[in-house]
Structures are given as structure tokens and as C-alpha cells.
Amino acid sequence: MGCCGSVNVDHPASQAHIQKTRGNGKGQDFVILGIKDQNMVGKVYLSGAPTSDPQLVASVDAAVKKTNTGVERGTDEHDKLWDIAWHNSKMTSGYQFLSLKKPFFPIGRHVVGLLDALGEHGFIPSAAPSYGGPISDKQSVEWPMIICEKDVEKQYAKETLFFGIKDQNIPGKLCVCGPADVIEQLKGDFASKLKQISPEATEAFDDYDTAKEWDLVWRNTSITSGMQAFSLAKPYFPKGKVVFTIIEEVYKLGWRLVSTPNFGGNDVDWPCFIFKRLLERPASTPALILAAMKDQNIPGKLCLAGAPEVGDVAKLLRDALIKVKGNDQVTLSKDEYDDDWDQVIRNTSITTGHQAFSLKTAYFPKNDAILAITNTMGKAGWKLTACPSFGGMSASWPSMIWEYTGEPWETAFVAIKDQNMPGKVCIGGVEKEVCEGLLNGFKVLSGPDCEQRKDDYDKEFDFSFRNTKMTTGHACMSMQNSWWPYAYPMELILGEFHKFGWRPAGGPNFGSMMLTWPAVVFQRKAGSGGAGAPAPRAQTSRVWLPTRESQAGIDLEIWEQLRAKTRCAWSCMSLWFEEADLSQACGSSPEPSYVHPDLQDDRSVDLDWMPSFEEPGAAFDGCGWEAWQPGQPGWFDEGAPFEAFGGLKALPPLAYEFEFDSNPRPSRGRSSSPKGPRTSRRVLGVPGAATLEEKVEQKYVGYLLGRGGQTVKEICGLWQVEMWFDQSTAKEGYSTLYIQGDPSALDQAKVGVERLMRSCDKREGSRSADSDFR
């Protein structure tokens, strides 16, 4: 932050650095779009490596020139750290000094034309953080930034369907623009559903929202709580059931929500939804969940609406949040202000709150709380699809929308604190290797005084960069616009994150009054990593591997059945017994070593020739359940012996039941479908006993287990505690050790574990610590 931040940035050096990173292949899949309508000369900006494509620029040029007369492409001294700028564009209603028309409300046809031009070249909006801040004690600015990503999976058509929510108006309106065929479809079942949730809604244009600007306008809609001038209810808080119904009905037409930008300024907020048409329309629509954070309220709340599974999801989120500092009193409870929501988690603390008597910034997001929400949803199979932000009258209500995919996801979080001295970029949930490239880039883009260091205000985050300049700052005594975002620093973040497999999923906005804290949530499939990520440790996919010594316990006929089902030649059998011989990994113990299906362990070995085994809950092709004789350790044999691990408990079963198809088929094992949503694993233990939770580097896990689980067994017996590992995070380099028992025994057990880890460092490579234990 600074007085006219752009003056303090070395523009030529910044441009040279970005060109260098583009040459290294970073950020090639992203285009950043900026809209500067709250300016005397409206502007549209474009930045990113793909802007070197003359055809893409020509398409955008044609679309922008349709927005107004006299549009020219060029740059001036106020357009630094962007690649291309168009002047005299008109994307919103603009200033409305002497009019009853609402200011800065987007013009649907112009936005759709611009997004269609990008879609023609395969770029789809994926996140839309909004920047802004105060320019006086009565006025503020808001700058929408739309991050577009290359549709490498070829999921979407180029067409755009755009919704503008105009609830901060009398009457409330829902304005729509898109292809003619879907507009006609929206007049059918969608209109009927809309009238059920907003009975007074009528289809009609007026002088303020005309057919020249929009394809469809519904008046008298009620999508948020409204002004609430004489009520204790919060203004313009979204009505969860209404918003969910609107999105669900559009999904039924074969469209998907991809991004949710915010327009506005000067105390008005216009949340918008961008949908893209699927190239292949599925037979059914995915389950959806909407969550809205109500931290600018006493008590804080997380409100949920959506699919029938929302009750189970609410319990998952409650259990995750209760472990986060400041959220130990969370409960599931609704009151008279929550009728528009299915479930409400009360007493939440997701941001820093009001901060009336503190130097801490107000309503800045807490990393641990945000990641507790997003990671819990991701592990349960819910993919974050967009982060709309509602608000008005100095209130800000960040929200999130998930689709159920059944695949586990992991998330990361970036929060930008430019309205602060010093400016900061705070990051959580990523590998430390990501920060190396970021620091080098920030030192060029923001100045050599930029450093990676946390202070007492950032301790919830994993990493923090100080003295960053993500915007122009408070541009006093200058013609530069205050708080206008730079594209190059965001491109730097996108490129470094993408190197490790992270993709932007949404841009929630936090803040209060005139404070604005833009953020971006990234996600990736669990365990996917990226080109720059450390190689994951080799592991099995929930397979029991017998050693050479135990092979005699299984008849040759069984091995033949396995060979037939995996469609392998017999040469693979030698590979099975040679390279998968666990006796070399676990020491010279003559006893069989087992890997429990729900426990990843260093002793497991990855076999590339093996088929892919999916987690229970999805049908799979591979080894058959019927191939194993009763009483023998099978691929998913629930009766397999646990005593080989001694006192160690494996991860508990999933918190839902399965229906198994027992009908034997030649190339099919068993198929299962959950009766409820996929949920995260729960920790077993004795009710009422104290539990200690410790993160342990993965390199120590096998050492602490000992041969056959003997080490853990001795610890449990010596101090009368229960111990078990949660290794679901093994690919991230650590596991969680749970120790449960009498509080006085927990400290002794912890000291013993720490002593064993120190011993492991001295005897690197050893797999058993029995001799050092005492």
C-alpha cells in the first residue's frame, strides 16, 4: 500500500520479469480481465500470456468496440502492469448523478459479448475477486477482476448466460442475458419455479433495464433480505433457498456456474452469476450446497442450503470448525432470522471480526477457519465452483457454492491485504516450494523491501509476504484510481500455484463498511500435485500385499484367479514377489506384514501394473471379491487380522453404510453406492477421555510403528494410552498421531514419541526402534 502505489513500482522491470516467467511456461492457461467503469473514461483491461495471440485480441477488440462509440485500444500512464487496455468502453450504467437509475449496474449484453469473445478461444471464467476501498469518508470504489482459465478439458461451449441480481433497488430485479434458446427455456419451468420462491415476480422491462441491455428481466424478486431499515435482521443477506433454487434450475438446462463477479461502488453491490453451457449435457444434475458467512453479526453464523445431504454436511462442518481457535462453541441451531436456510452453524468466527479497540484489520478472513470449511467439503467429495459475494449498506456477505463430484479435493487460500500498512499477501494450504517463486517475483513487482515474514496479525496463515503492492493503493494527489488492481502480481500467483497443480476456484470478498479484502480459493484433486510438486511417496491403493514368506498361505489357484482378473501375464507374478517383497522394506522379520486397506504406510509399495482401486463408494473394475477364500486376507476383507499392528488402530471406517452387489461378474469386483454423501473420516476413541493430536512427519511413521506394530504396542502398554495414526495426509508429508487416555499419561507418551523421533534421526534408515524405546 502507499500514496499512489503505481509510482513506487518499477514498471519496466515488472514487465520484463513477467515476460520471463511466461517464457518458462508459467501462467500460460490464464487470462485476466479487468473492468474500470468507475472512472471518467471507462476502460477494459486484458493481461496474460495468451494476449500474444492476435486472433484472441481481435475477438476481444470487436466485442469491446460494440459497447460504446469511440472505443480505442491503447495505454496511458494509468494502465501499467496490464498488457492491453481499451478506453471509452461502457460495461455498466456508470455514474448516475441526476438519475434514478442505479449506478454501476452491469449491462448484460456487453458483459456477455466480452465473455463470449474469450470463450471463442477456450477461456472460461473461474474466479472473480473484487478489489476496492474508500476514496473519501462517503465514497468507495469497486473493481471487478475476472480470472479466465483455458478449458483444456473441453467441457464448455463459448456461449455465456449472465445473471445480474438487483436487490438493492425498488423493485428488486433479476436480469438475464444469454443465447436465445436458453432465454426461451427460462420462460418455462424456471419462471414457474421463480414465482414459487418470489410470488410477486413478473416478467417486464422498464426504462432502467431495457431490452437493449438485457434479454429478460423479472421485477419484484426477493433474493436477499433487502434493506431492513427498521429491523434487527441484516441487510441484503442472501436467501439461501432462493439462491439455491435459481442455480439448480439453470443446472437442469445443461449450464454450469463458473464464476460470480461483483459490480458496484459507492455503497451499492451487484452480485452476478456467470454460467457456461456444457458441451455434453449429463443425464442428471449434481447435488449443490450453498454456504454464506455471516460474521458481521452477533453471533457469527455459517448458513447452509441446498441438497438433501445438507444436514450431514452441516455436521461435518461443525465438527471441523469446533477444532479451530475461536470456534469451540459452535452449534447447529437456527433462529427467527434463519428461515431462508436449511441449516445454520452458530457462534462461528471465520474472520477477525469488528476489532473496535485493536490495530488488527476488521473482518479479515482467518486462514484456519476458511480451510477448515473448504478442505472438509473437498475431502467429502464436494468441488468448489464459485464464491459469490452479497452485500450493501456497508455489509459484506461472502458465500461459497459446491457441486458434488464424489472425488476428494484439497484447497488453498490467498488473501490480499492492500488496505493496510504494510501491504500483505497471506497464503495458506500450499507447499513451501510455492513461496520461493513468489518471493522472487514480489521483490521485482513490489520492490526489494518485500519479504516473507509473518507477524502476530498473520499467525493463522502458513505464509505471509510483507510490503507487497497488489493495487495502486490510496492514490492521493494523483489522477490514478485508488485501489485499482495490478494484473502482473495476480498472474505471478496464478503461475506459481498452477505449477503445483492449483487452479483458481472462486474469489470471495471479505470486509465491512468500506474495507475490502479480495481473496482467491484454489483447489486441486487430492494427491494430484503438479509439475513442480515434490514426487509423492510410493504407496498402494488400499491393497493387502503378502510377503514372500506368506505366499504359501494362498493357493496357487487363487493367484491364477487374480492373474485372470487383472489381465496380467504370468511374468507379472515374478514382479509381484520380487519387487513387491515387503520383507526388504520392513526388516528381516519372518512374520507376514500387512497393510490395512484404510491405512497408508511406508511399508506399502506401488505396483504400476496393478489396476486402479477406487475408494469404497464408487464402482470399479478389477480384482473380484469372490476371488478370495473366506478367512484369508482379501483386497477389501473386513475380517482381516488387525493384531499384526499390536496396539495400533487403523483409520476407522467411513461414516456411512454401503450396499454391496454380491452378484459375481467376470471382470467386476463389488460395486457400492453410499446411502449418504461421502464424508471425512472420524477419529475413534473412548468417550470422555482426553485426546492429544500431533502432526508427525511421514518419515517417522514407520519407525514409530515398529516391526509388526511392536513399538506402538509397548507405548500403549507402558503409559496406558491408546494411539492411532490418521495417514490420509501422507502425500502432504505428514500424518496425524492421536494419543488418548488420562491427561497425565498424554504428556509422558508425547515425550516418549519425541524421544523416538530423535532416535530415528540418529539411526536414519532403521525401521524399528525397539532397542531405543526404553
What does this structure look like?
With 774 residues, this protein is α+β, with helices and mostly antiparallel strands. The protein folds into three domains: 5-525, no CATH class; 535-682, no CATH class; 686-774, K Homology domain, type 1 (Ribosomal Protein S8, Chain: A, domain 1, 2-Layer Sandwich), CATH 3.30.1370. The longest helix has 20 residues, at 743-762. The strands form six sheets. Strands 1, 2, 3, 4, 5, 6 and 7 form a seven-stranded antiparallel sheet that branches. Strands 8, 9, 10, 11, 12, 13 and 14 form a seven-stranded antiparallel sheet that branches. Helix content is 22%, strand content 24%. It comes from Effrenium voratum.
Sheet with the most strands, sense and barrel status? 7 strands, antiparallel
Using only CA atoms, what is the Rg? 28 Å
Integer average pLDDT? 80
| Count of discrete alpha- or pi-helical segments spanning 4 or more residues | 14
Low-confidence stretches: 1-7, 535-553, 565-687, 765-774
Q: What's the shape? A: globular
Helix coverage percent of residues? 10-25%
**What structural class do helix, strand and pairing data support?**
alpha+beta
Percentage of residues in strands: 15-25%
Q: How many structural domains are formed by the residues?
A: 3
Q: Span between N and C termini?
A: 56 Å
Q: Tally the beta strands.
A: 34
Keywords: RNA-binding
Protein name: K Homology domain-containing protein
GO molecular function, one term: RNA binding
Please name the defining characteristics of this protein:
774 residues, alpha+beta, Ribosomal Protein S8, Chain: A, domain 1, 3 domains, 7-stranded antiparallel sheet, 14 helices, 34 strands, globular, disordered N terminus, disordered C terminus, RNA binding, KH_dom_type_1, K Homology domain-containing protein, KH_dom, RNA-binding
